[in-house]
Amino acid sequence: MNKQAQQVRHDHHDRTIARPSRRGVRVLLAAGAAAFTLTAGLATPLNPAPQEAQAKADGGKKTLTVALAQSVDSLSPFLATRLVSTSVHRLMYEYLTNYDPKDNHVVPGFATKWESSPDKLTWTYTIRDDSKWSDGEKATAKDAAFTFNKMMTDDAAATANGSFVTNFKKVTAPSDTQLVIELKKPQATMTSLDVPIVPEHVWKDVKDYSKFNNDQKFPIVGNGPFVLTDYKTDQYVKLKVNKDFWRKSKTPQFDEIVFKTYKDQDAAVAALRKGEVSFVAGSPALTPAQAASLKGEKNIKVNEGPGRRFYAIAVNPGARTKDGKKFGDGNKALLDQKVRQALFRSVDTKTIVDKVFQGHAVQGAGYIPPRFNDYFWQPSDGQKLSYDPEAAGKLLDDAGYPLKDGKRVGKDGKPLNFRILCHATDPNDKAVGKYLKEWWGAIGIGLKVDCLDDVSVPWYAGEYDLAFDGWSVNPDPDFVLGIHTCAALPAKAKESAATDNFICDKKFDDLYGQQLAEYDAAKRADVVKDMQSWLYDSGYMNVMAYPNAVEAYRTDQIKSITTMPTAAGNIYGQDGYWSWWSAEPASASDSSDSGSSSSTGVVIGIVIAALLVIGGGVFFAMRRRSTADDRE
């Protein structure tokens, strides 16, 4: 597999290498929390900001430019997992269903309606007859059937979203407007299959899905609200409005959207300040220092809302393939649950929220952020692995690592030392890494913080002990749970796969199967919470925080834009295309009247009634990192 395709989530990892994040700053441990100062001299984008990138009329064309400190991992929807990539795909391609911007309930997309057989094993989707590909070809149910069948029969095509089709038995398109999916057993995610539908007449000729990045011919054929017209690796992605998009209730008022990559987040923020870009998104959020520096700036608005990401420490449980072949060099001490829990108990999440995120986050525990209230879980008082260095030391004693001369030593006489993978561009990782060295050092454990530009290589090779991790969570939690199943393990050592960090456990797999087959919403939520409880007790995933979404835009370039959820949410990285589709350019009078302001969890822009296709569903307004990014 080529290097570009390998650079996934450790975003977005918008894991926020995500994901492909799943970032700039601030904490000097010896002296407490100290925020740095941004200077224009630091802001040097990877390529000069083109004049047309500004959100203003240029020869009649209005362009909205989004500044990012993250690059696309692949333009192939079969490979991409970084948040920036999946966000672009939501603009390029239709999904069977979409999510309402107001409260995240499911609304029609490429499919106008759907129904299941009484036994829930056959699902029939009515595909809209008014969608066509940007090259003029009609978009039909056959394109959807091709997309799913390719994922079912080609391991490479299943890299990003394979978990959605592992339970599929057969997919057919009896007509242009009818898609039929037959299941092996009931599957509760059938109205939330977050899979971009691709044109069969373009993709049927692709020879190797593991190497094809969909960046050879422009414009790229799609049927979404925008068409990708140009792309330069590590520089920019350009999209123009698709005049033939089926949704006619509102036409986007910006003619072009540009996602522009900067060498780091400081440079992106400086570009916003100078008016070279319209909007800046964090990785996944602006740092407290950056946000504070922008508040009070004329014509700049800071938006802050509950985030859809978590920020965590992942433990390497021993890298292995689906057939059980072990590889990598993870520290075997971490195979002991007592050791993992001792590390848990030596992390003060309150300090991380207060000092690193400076209050722009919620303390973590469960795997699903509190923004998704139905699935949000917290440990009971008796279960909670709260910060307690003394209890951590006791666990290490019980595990056979006594303290000698200030160092924990195993039976082999060797000191207990770990490595943790850190994203070089993420200031959160660096700041927390300093705290971990201090906290774990206090109980006799050594730590080396390995900050790399691309953590994908050692991650896939299993050559790490611990790693800063994080994913964006979708309204349906199936995807982020599925990456911890045995089925997500790689077929071959060191190859990319859906797995996050090689977890494979029968109990977890059994629970995953239960939630997938449960159609009763309340009962399914209970099983999802049991899965989070298992992850928590196992010590494999230490979710430290749920960061807020903190971003900013120029009010002299953007008049209004829709957040998701509309009452208090994010603009960048939505489960849909609503923000960029709804954005309205500012006029000269808007520019002269607009002063500095900030929005903290408040509606920005407009709620478009025509978007609310169906009613129902309640969303709650509370609260991860693009890394993992970024699965999305």
Automatic annotation (TrEMBL):
Q: Which Pfam families match?
A: SBP_bac_5 (PF00496)
Key words, A-Z: Membrane, Signal, Transmembrane, Transmembrane helix, Transport
Q: Where is this region: Disordered?
A: 1-20
Give the PROSITE patterns listed for this entry.
TAT (PS51318)
Task: Provide any one GO MF term from the record.
Answer: peptide transmembrane transporter activity
Subcellular location(s) per record: Cell envelope
Look up keyword Transcription regulation and say if it applies: no
Give the SUPFAM superfamilies listed for this entry.
Periplasmic binding protein-like II
A GO CC term assigned to this protein in UniProt: ATP-binding cassette (ABC) transporter complex
Residue ranges with Basic and acidic residues bias? 8-17
Membrane-spanning segments = 601-622
Q: Which InterPro entries match?
A: Peptide/Ni-bd, SBP_5, SBP_5_dom, TAT_signal
Query: Keyword Glycoprotein on this protein?
Result: no
One GO biological process this protein is involved in is: peptide transport
Q: Start and end of every Solute-binding protein family domain?
A: 106-481
The entry sums up its family as follows: Belongs to the bacterial solute-binding protein 5 family.
What is the name of the protein in this document? ABC transporter substrate-binding protein
Species assigned in the record: Streptomyces xanthii
